[in-house]
Amino acid sequence: MKKIGSIFMSLLVLFGASSALASCGGSKKDDNTLVVWVSNPLKPDYESLLSMSGGNKNKMALYTKAVVESFEAAHPGVTVRLESRGWSDSLNSQVMSAARSNTLPDLMMGEMYLPVYIKEGILKPISIGEYEEKLSNGVIADVKMGGKLYGAPFSTGVFALQYNPEILEMAGIPEEDWEPETWAELLVNSQKVAEANTNKGNIVTGGFLINNVAGISGAFRALPFVRQAGGDFVNENGEIVFGSENAVEAYKFLSDLAKTAPTGSLDITAEDQLHNLFISGGAAYQLEGPWTLEEADDYFKACAIPKPTAESTTSENAYVGNLIMAMTKNCDNEQLANEFIQHLLSPNMQWELFMGDSRLPTNMTFLQEKYEEMIEEKPYFKAYLDIMLNDEFEGGLPTFQRNSARIWETWGTFYNDVLTTTNSASVTTLAQNFENTVKGLLEGLHE
């Protein structure tokens, strides 16, 4: 896979982390209080959630309780304090403000901005012993710089092709063809479903439900296809390649797939609406992380993303929901912080996480040893576990050192134009124009 270069850094998914660790800035109580900024699946209010009626079924709260209480029991006198500071741009604003005032927590989780924090000196390298060798190259691609590790993903997700057997069967597609091996096979199946479910010009049940949510949501799900075609959004030298020949090949294929989407679905502006549409039988296929199957395991199946051609040797992917725990520059008790990260990666906590969340553990030794048991618990996760164990991905979306929000906003317009065009030849021009716009935004030419 392509690595992120100096122009911009890869998108990271610093989602839910754990508790708080020793002595940090304005949010510290004392040297035995560990402060951690977290998001799902770690719940700062886990105790109140568990005390509610039916709270004993709240999987994330139970996972958080297991993490905090077992760590505190192993470290007498230590208090782990979990705090929420929002997510994405909201979290980034909090982090930058706290960095300026030296009031950062001991540990933090986040999403898009970790590589930037590394470059800005906001994060410290971590030391997690044997666990560093148990993390795949894919999940740490964006947080290992200069030979040092600055964050440890303790939960992650990757993309797979999900499908609805009932819809495919009703369209007359034989079972042996439900899991397409090539893009052409996926397109043919999707077209058959759409044609069989068109009423008065409207596709009632789509062949492929494509994510056209503006910004990073749609970009995340386009990236695996671009990588399957041998392209990327940036190359190994950090150069912008949104308009490369390989990327254009993927865009054209996605444009064809979009013609089989249920009518009106390209106008959906929220991921949860797409999720509900697929769950309710709105389409035969979609590319998504494992969370959809967590809810609907009795109905849907998943398989590897098909390759562009039978002769293709690429089997690429991208992470999504890569929950990374990192240590900030204000953390004084580095040993305790490192021990907490190791705690999250320990076999017991990785199992608790697997049972309590819809993402995947990152400890590869644990995945190998518990593979059969995990499939027995969640058979619909097999395709995702196989992708993880084959290490078929490296990094996520790029993020940019300037005009990041505007770049992804512009991506939304570009991608919508690609998906809705009726002239395949125009995709090349659209992609090149978008690439030039991104370059201008990075150079400050459009400010």
Summarize the structure.
By secondary structure, the protein is an alpha+beta fold. The protein has helices at residues 46-51, 59-74, 88-101, 114-119, 137-140, 165-170, 183-196, 216-228, 245-258, 271-279, 291-295, 334-345, 347-356, 364-377, 382-389, 404-420, 426-442, and strands spanning 8-10, 33-37, 79-83, 107-109, 123-124, 144-145, 148-149, 152-156, 160-163, 198-199, 202-203, 206-209, 283-288, 301-303, 323-328, 360-361, 398-400. α9 crosses α16 (404-420), α14 (364-377) runs antiparallel to α15 and α16 packs antiparallel against α17 (426-442).
Could you characterize what this model shows?
The protein has 447 residues and is an alpha+beta fold. The protein folds into two domains: 8-156 and 321-386, D-Maltodextrin-Binding Protein, domain 2 (3-Layer(aba) Sandwich), CATH 3.40.190.10; 160-316 and 402-442, D-Maltodextrin-Binding Protein, domain 2 (3-Layer(aba) Sandwich), CATH 3.40.190. Helices cover 41% and strands 13% of the residues. It is built from 17 helices and 17 strands. It has helices at 46-51, 59-74, 88-101, 114-119, 137-140, 165-170, 183-196, 216-228, 245-258, 271-279, 291-295, 334-345, 347-356, 364-377, 382-389, 404-420, 426-442; strands at residues 8-10, 33-37, 79-83, 107-109, 123-124, 144-145, 148-149, 152-156, 160-163, 198-199, 202-203, 206-209, 283-288, 301-303, 323-328, 360-361, 398-400. The strands form five sheets. Strands 2, 3, 4, 5, 8, 15 and 16 form a seven-stranded mixed β-sheet that branches. A four-stranded mixed β-sheet has the order 12-13-9-14. A hairpin with a 2-residue loop joins strand 6 and strand 7 (148-149). Helix 8 crosses helix 9 (245-258) and helix 16 runs antiparallel to helix 17 (426-442). The chain is globular, with a radius of gyration of 22 Å. The protein starts with 7 loop residues before the first strand and ends in a 5-residue tail after the last helix.
